[in-house]
Amino acid sequence: MVVDQEHTGIMRKKTHPRQLGVPLNRWGRNLISCCPFHSPEETSLFFYDALGYWRYRCLQCGSEGDLVEFVMRSRFNGLEEPAARAEAMEFLGAQEHEQDSDPDEHPWIKEIGGEKSRVLENFVRYCHWAACKSPSSAEFFESRGWSIGQAQLYGLGYYSGDPEPFYSYCMLSGIERHQVSFYLDNLEAYHEPRITIPARNSKGLIHSVYGRSMEDDGEHNPYISYASGPVDIPFNIQPDNDNPIIVEGMFDALTADLAGIPGVVSTMYQDLTMSHLYKLKACGANSVTLILRRDANRRSQEYRIQDYLKMAETQGLKFKSIVLPKDETVDLLVRNYGADHLLNLINETEEDTVHTHRRSMLLQDIKENFDTAMGCPPDESVGYPLNTFPQLSRDIDGIQSGIFYVSSNPFNLKTSLLSSFALDLIETNKEIKLIYIALETPRRQIFDRMVAMLTGLSVLDVRKKNTDEEVNARILEATRALMGYVRDNRLEIWEDQPSFDNKELLATLKEEQREHAGLVVIIDGIDHFKVTDRPDLADIHERRSSVMLDIYKTLDIPLFIGGEIVDENGALIAPRAYLRDSDAIYWLESKDGELALNVNSKRLGNNNFYNGKLSIDPQSNRIQEA
User: Fold this and answer.
1) pLDDT above 70: percentage of residues in the chain
2) Is residue 363 within a helix (H) or strand (E), and if so which, with residue range?
3) 3 state SS for 549-584
4) Do residues 256 and 247 touch, judged by C-beta distance below 8 A?
5) Please, is 596 exposed, middle or buried when counting C-beta atoms within 10 Å of its C-beta (0-12, 13-18, 19+)?
6) Which of 100, 207, 359, 411 is a plausible cystine mate for 229, CB 3.0–4.6 Å?
7) Residue 379: partners with Cβ closer than 8 Å, 6 or more residues away
8) DSSP state, residue 1
9) Residue 38 phi/psi, 5° resolution?
10) Contact at 8 Å (CB) between 526 and 578?
11) pLDDT value, residue 591
């Protein structure tokens, strides 16, 4: 058989380590004791209930087995195996009545512990065995700092994505194929290899089995569920826990538990809900501590924590929140500094109220702002540098977060400047993604304009085959470069659509920012932007200005807006609603055959950041500093 079932039958389900008569201490959700098999003084022997029954494992000498085998080895080691097994079963059987189920137990508890639990526990045992045989799972656990032995304490396993071997195993265990399909209803929906994690309720019964991707692609939600079931039960939930610690990731919870920190549960990267808190309170919680990784969008994260605080208050729970430093996780913190460091951090954190939360977040933001400033050397740009605008890049310290309004006289030069900025940003900064939103021209014209700028040819030349094959080769190379930026997900060019409005734009950009922290957006043609909210503002220019400000405050990214400005006798007179909230105005003007760019700002404490001469390629219209 794939997993050793032995003939101990129901015995090993009913037996409990406390029947063994050895000193036991609680260690996370497991029990720990000294190992009688290699060192009576070393507390490295774990008793764990990960597979539906209690087993033991020493993380030092590797001794393992079920409780019958423990009694055989520790009490009847001098006997032959059959005799030792009989003595062990007689020893444990005499105390079976201590583990009999409560006759007053609710029938629902018995029901969910029946056929479904049997199927899920068999799947967990099968994946437990497969993890021992799979080199890829061993490599994954090793990369996370776990050994196979430690993983088995929590029932972690490996599923290859092929259900047929598991169906065969279930037949040996007396489980029909239709039962597997009914309870593991998502088993055949996912065919890639995954690490499996059993999820248990507070009674210790499996309600679902999660699958975690082994690809380290930075995803914050790499989990799927093989069995439909409740999604609002905190992972690793335990009864009789008055102060649970809520973390985000599965390994955050398990690493803390392995270090002996009791009551650490995970939301598995879901938002904390009222249902999570209700279940924790039902298990005895009178206070909760929430530990979050730092989001790139701190403003949004702060609002979420305030919502969590209000939910806790409605449940009568005391509440603490901790936001870890950038790139820090509970998993790494416990591994690098130990369990006491995390516990001290929790103890030293003030209980949250609406006022104290705002204050603590403000203090963290001030410190982070200082650390960020001091972490940037004097000779480096704070923002994204521009190679073809070196003096501009120095004067404004790179392209930084803000709203920048771009216009020109003549008006058509505005699009040439935005396209030149776009190409320079992509060519110079490999870490950014740029989204160019063309509201005035078809997307195809933006393609032609960028290919022309990359080749130094005119837009008309790149629209058809040339008699000179060398020119055609240049066009092909530039087109491949443009396709490469798109293929590498560093450039997108959008055009106006019937449903394209500010709400849709903001929702889409939020999704993009989750994948690309270095996001830059250029909106060419603000005059044509649809606005579907802010009915309180009658003026359409004022509404567009408010929408752009909302997008900037939400995303905190560089946002270039191209639109029309009326210039009369050297003064910018209209429409002022566009300019009211811009961090800087980029004004490009052609006089006597020369181009001059002026960057002006009143919001940042300097009326004029930059005033320089630019040149424009007569063929491609690509603009750069003269």
Assistant:
1) 91
2) helix 354-374
3) HHHHHHHCCEEEEECCCEEECCEEEECHHHHCCCCE
4) yes
5) middle
6) 207
7) none
8) -
9) -140, -25
10) yes
11) 86
Tens digits of residue pLDDT in 8-22: 444 556 678 888 888
- Does residue 410 have a cis bond before it (omega within 30 degrees)? yes
Within 340-395, strands assigned E span: none
SS3 137: helix
DSSP annotation of 609 reads S
Which amino acid, 537?
L
pLDDT per residue as tens digits for the range 521-553:
999 988 888 888 777 777 788 888 888 888 898
Amino acid symbol at 50: A
Tokens representing 420 are 């030149």
Token output for 569: 């006798």
Distance, C-alpha 119 to centroid of its chain: 31
> Per the structure block, which two tokens stand in for 558?
């560089």
Residues 6+ positions from 593 with CB-CB distance below 8 Å: none
Residue 190 burial by Cβ neighbours in a 10 Å radius (0-12, 13-18, 19+) = middle
Task: Judge contact between 167 and 146, C-beta under 8 A.
Answer: no
Q: Kindly report the number of other CB atoms within 10 A of residue 600's CB atom.
A: 19
- 98-102, 241-245, 566-570: which has the minimum mean pLDDT? 98-102
- Burial bucket for residue 150 (CB in 10 Å: 0-12, 13-18, 19+): middle
Rounded Cα distance, 138 and 195, in Å: 10
- Nearest alpha-carbon partner for 185 in 111, 121, 119: 119
**DSSP assignment string, 110-165:** HHHTSHHHHHHHHHHHHHHHHHHH-HHHHHHHHHTT--HHHHHTTT-EEE-S--HH
Instruction: Tally the residues of the chain.
Output: 626
Non-local CB neighbours of 625 within 8 Å, separated by 6+ positions? 388, 389, 390, 391, 392, 612, 613, 614, 615
Going from the C-alpha of 533 to that of each of 282, 503, 550, the distances in angstroms are: 43, 8, 12
Distances (CA, A) of 249 to 218, 223, 255, 258, 277: 12, 10, 10, 14, 17
Looking at the chain, the number of H-run helices and the number of E-run strands are 22, 24
Residues 243 and 312: beta-carbon distance below 8 Å: no
Structure tokens at 113: 């512990």
User: What are the structure tokens assigned to 163, written together?
Assistant: 């259900």
**HEC secondary structure over 435-456:** EEEECCCCHHHHHHHHHHHHHC
**By three-state DSSP, how is residue 46 classified?**
strand
602 token code pair: 């009143």
Rounded to whole angstroms, the Cα distance separating 414 from 462 reads 21
CA–CA dist 88, 82 (Å, integer): 10
Distance (Å, rounded) from C-alpha 31 to C-alpha 313?
34
CA distances from 222 to 195, 219, 602 (A): 11, 6, 46
User: Which residues share a beta bridge with 599?
Assistant: 586, 610
* Tokens linked to 390: 């070196």
The helix-helix angle for 115-133 and 135-143 (nearest 10°) equals: 90
